[in-house]
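Researcher: I'd like a structural prediction for the single chain below. Treat it as a standalone chain; there are no partners to consider.
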Amino acid sequence: MAYSAGFTPHPKVSYANAAPTGTGSEAEYLEIALTEHRDPATLRDLLNESLPSGLDVTDAVEARTSGLADRLTASEWELRLDKVAAEDAERAVALFLAAETVDVQRRAKNGMRTFDARAAVARLQVVSPQPDRPVDGPCAILRLVVRHVTPAVRPDDVLSGLRAVADLAPPVPAAVTRLAQGLFDEESGTVTDPLALDREAVPTAPPTAVGTSSPQL
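Model: Treating it as a single chain, here is the predicted structure.
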């Protein structure tokens, strides 16, 4: 790994759009500068040997183009609302999507800030639980695609919006996991692979872009 110059060298690692505290993620990205060329698959394996259990590098490619952060324009999230009936969630989602604006508040360093949580939401729907994520009792699973805007609209802001328009208040905290982030495809309404440009570009020298997943905290 390459280090900066000076009296206190630091690893040349750049993190892009980290997930909010308290959420899980299967789609975090960072760039690492290397002092010599390494096969991306080998680098991935070496990193995984050094990382704690549950924190896994899932993919690594050479950064053959610039602007990784600029390619992270949207995120897809899963919101698990235990003890919430699916029909109640569907009613709340319909009211949220039908609204032109949904004002919510979040505490900032300068006090409470009010902003629209609706405009950034590209998709919001109730889906069936995945076979590998069984549910016990009433449980609503939401899939959310939100554009990265300023101010950032986070999953908890959307939950605040659902409470504002439909009085949907889960009795237990939602389990929130980021499933993907990348370029938003307007035509399909999906989030696309941000490393696709690097995979397709003509090979050059390092640095290397790395895709990671992290446990829910």
